[in-house]
Amino acid sequence: MSEQQLLDDLADRCGIAPDYHDIWGHRHEVSAQTKRAILTAMGLRVATVDDLRRELCVYEEEPWRRPCDPVLVRRVDDRAATWSFRLPIDEAEAHDVRIDWEVRDEAGCLQQKGEIGPGLVPAETRLVDDRRYVRFELPIPPGLAIGYYDLVARGRASSGTVEGTLRLILVPLQCYVPPQLQEGGRTWGLALQLYALRSCRNWGVGDFLDLAGFVNWAAQDLGVGVIGLNPLHALRNEPPYHISPYSPDSRLFLNVLYLAVEEIPELKESVPAQRLLEDGGFRARLEAFRKTDLVEYGQVYAAKREILVLLFAIFQERHLADLGGTQQPKTERGLAFERYVRKEGELLEHFALFQALSEELRSIYPQAGGWQDWPEPYRDPKSATVVSFRATHAASIRFHQYLQWLADEQLRRVAAGAREHGMTVGLYHDLALGSDRSGSDAWAFQDVLALEADSGCPPDAFAPKGQNWGLPPFNPRRLRASGYRMFIALLRKNLAYGGAIRLDHVMGLFRLFWIPRGLPASAGAYVHYPAEDLLGIVALESLRQQALIVGEDLGTVPDSVRERLAVANVLSYRVFYFERREDGGWKAPDVYPKPAMAVATTHDLPTLSGFWVGQDIDTRAKLGFYPEEGSRQRALEERRQDKARMLSALNAQGLLPEGVTEDPASVPHMTADLCLAIHTYLARTPAWIMMASVGDWLGECAQTNVPGTVDSHPNWSRKTSLPMEVLREDPVFHRLAAAVRAIRPANV
């Protein structure tokens, strides 16, 4: 085979698609440079012909040297499911092989055991390094419930014994759906950016106490069944580069900026913290933070940290005992903290260790942009240097564990409150596609992330040069080899705090556009993932935690993918702006699918008010997104046509407000009546869930995030125009809620 053929063969085996079609239907062939770069990012050596031959040989032969596959995901009702066991034996030995096995659950409890053989018939044989290997195909033990198991097997022949372990994951066919929705009900909800919530008591950023109050009001007064939230993942809270909730430091833990300090029990015990809160200068700082129109991330976090340090000090003093250099709980609250730390285990240990390391090394190397810039011994979580740091900085590590415990306590209380109100779904969270390569997830999981690649999307009408999201993707081969441990952890952690979750860019379960570091987005390629495995695990975790799954399936999504997601009860994410017919007109409400969430707009799109006046077009023009004035004028004309089509769709449903015609000139600005008409239109759809944005109902024009910008636009920073105390009494809000509730009764 030629070098090109070897490269193409290896790329194909590793899931790299040879080409892709853009949004206009044009075919793009993936270059040899891109294939080499992606294979290198996967950890393969591909510089020479000999390298390629060696990697192909490893790909072919390595599985034979392992008695068992690392993981097997199968539907629990698949009676034909089998698992493989391999061992090196002579031909004469095959008939006498005996394989004994045992299956243990997650707690290590023995579930089943047995023995098969002699008389087994090999399913396949292979010569590897002049040794004859035989693969036996064996039935999965019957009667096991959905869940995670370790299947330990020993193959015995006259030449010796071989032992292997298979991680067996038995999954359901479908994700969880609340009974009310299964029985034909529909619900609705309000979506908000938590950081943006104003209140008379918070510290200039919405917090968990604000959220609790919002949930109580929305459930009791408005009949809301769902509260949608921006990702609450851990951030550095350093503007402008480290405040995007979709580019977090960690997707496994929470942003402690949302802590409501007044709700922390240690505040009643800490005289220094009370004095600081009563200090005139400190109170003036908080009042100034409340008055700003943009969230002052760094300053607010610094103020909260001053108090949190004092609260941690009193927590250690009152609730932990120092026994021989280690701290042990001495009160019930101390025991609760210890239980939390033990339950979170290594994940929390690594996260807190990373936070402590970052603070220490940033003070020594202020120019270091991320852990990749740290002295080499600190880049490896398992190095002797890091182990030594852990031993000498136990208090700093415990501080960050304490903060996560507080955040966990407060958010769980909010989620419990939603359940107590009988909300159909409750809190609806958002799981970002990835995390920042300089963050703790990337440091702790270097083995399963492709850090020399970014995820993104190819060129389209929205982004003619493509998009690079700057997020390192999962390495599919290594993720599978790890038994999908990080993927499972992400689902468990993010499903723990509510009744639903949105998977950002759900196509990533099937394929993801990889862009080699240093190359433009147009030079990327699609990499395929083990979709059936991942979708099965999503269904398993959804059913275990009784949480609904919504898949953000915007953009170019093949019909086959949407059909597969629908079979799995993953709700489609239907955005009003995009639900068009081929002629450009709006689809009628009854065309929407049932297993779906219908929304007017998203954080990356203009608000309804902004859309109507073209503020997003003006913003993009000011930022240089249009090469010349003609482009902007064409965009404005397209917008006028879109508004006319939208009014026509509303008219067809008898929803045009009084005095409004199908001519956009009849309604120059978005009005409360027009906003109500659009949401009534969405409420009429069969979609199980309809979500309205707080910003839309407040008539706000500014877009939450302008894709393609970081510091040239105040993304992820704008606050709501009204504080919660005024919002509760806003007549427009109550009128809109009453109209939706008339179509979708409260929590039904």
What report would you give on this structure?
- The protein has 748 residues and is α/β, with parallel strands linked by helices.
- The chain is globular.
- Among the domains are: 3-63, no CATH class; 77-171, Immunoglobulin-like (Sandwich).
- The strands form seven sheets. An eight-stranded parallel β-barrel has the order 11-12-17-20-23-24-25-26, surrounded by five helices. Strands 3-10-9-5-6 form a five-stranded mixed sheet.
- The N and C termini lie far apart (63 Å).
- The chain contains 23 helices and 26 strands.
- Helix content is 38%, strand content 19%.
- Helix 16 (559-567) links the parallel strand 23 and strand 24 (571-575).
Sum up the structure in keywords.
748 residues; alpha/beta; Immunoglobulin-like; 8-stranded parallel β-barrel; 5-stranded mixed beta sheet; 26 strands; 38% helix; 19% strand; globular
Write the layout of secondary structure elements.
Elements lengths: L2 H11 L5 E3 L5 E3 L2 H10 L7 H17 L5 E5 L6 E7 L9 E7 L5 E7 L7 E5 L2 E9 L7 E11 L2 E12 L7 H4 L4 E6 L15 H15 L3 E4 L3 E2 L15 E5 L16 H8 L1 H12 L5 H23 E4 L2 E4 L2 H33 L19 H9 L1 H27 L5 E6 L8 H5 L8 E5 L9 E5 L4 H6 L3 H11 L4 E4 L7 E6 L8 E4 L2 H15 L2 E4 L7 H9 L3 E5 L20 E4 L8 H6 L1 H8 L6 H24 L19 H12 L5 E5 H4 L26 H4 L3 H13 L5
Helix pairs in contact: 1-2, 1-3, 5-11, 6-8, 9-11, 14-15, 20-23
